[in-house]
Amino acid sequence: MNIISANFLVSNTNPAACPSPDKKEFAFIGRSNVGKSSLINMLVNRKSLAKTSSTPGKTQTINHFLINDSWYLVDLPGYGYSKISRAKSASWGPMIETYLKKRTNLVTTFVLLDPRLVPQAIDLDFIQWMGTEGIPFALVFTKIDKLSRNELVKSMQLWEKKLLDTWEELPPVFSTSADDRRGKETLLNYMESLLATK
Fold this sequence. Notes:
Elements: E1 6-12, E2 25-30, H1 36-43, E3 62-67, E4 71-75, H2 86-89, H3 94-102, E5 106-113, H4 121-133, E6 137-141, H5 149-163, E7 173-175, H6 184-195
Parallel strand pairs: 2-4, 2-5, 5-6, 6-7
Antiparallel strand pairs: 1-3, 3-4
């Protein structure tokens, strides 16, 4: 899939105020500092469409981008950063939960994971919550350029083993690097295949 245009549309904290659900939509979410904004910018060939920051937890709104004038890409707030107040990070946050459960045009949600870390409880809990709620999702390992091939294989095997403790079948899994652009075409092709379905 070629990204011809990518434009910021709107930010808000009220899922009911999101754009009309008349176009298919993909959401990106992950633990704070997982490289979400960098991945989004890499996918859409823009340097600063999604705002990157050295301060984890920067994204605290639902951010909609219109891609190719035909579908939405959504940058959701990260979860699990200790400096965000308990009031804002309670549960997964009413804003995030309402969006994920009620957004009728949401095709799938990409849950981003850092393969340099052992499986984190907060990621595992969020993945389990998504499954319990029946919300379609895929896993995306980011920053794979930071690991050797052997280290990456071991990390993904560890994640697979951990998830299969509670899952009969794993969701789609992707590996990416915003720095060297690995995984870009594979991920975009997967999105394109979902856009082509009714």
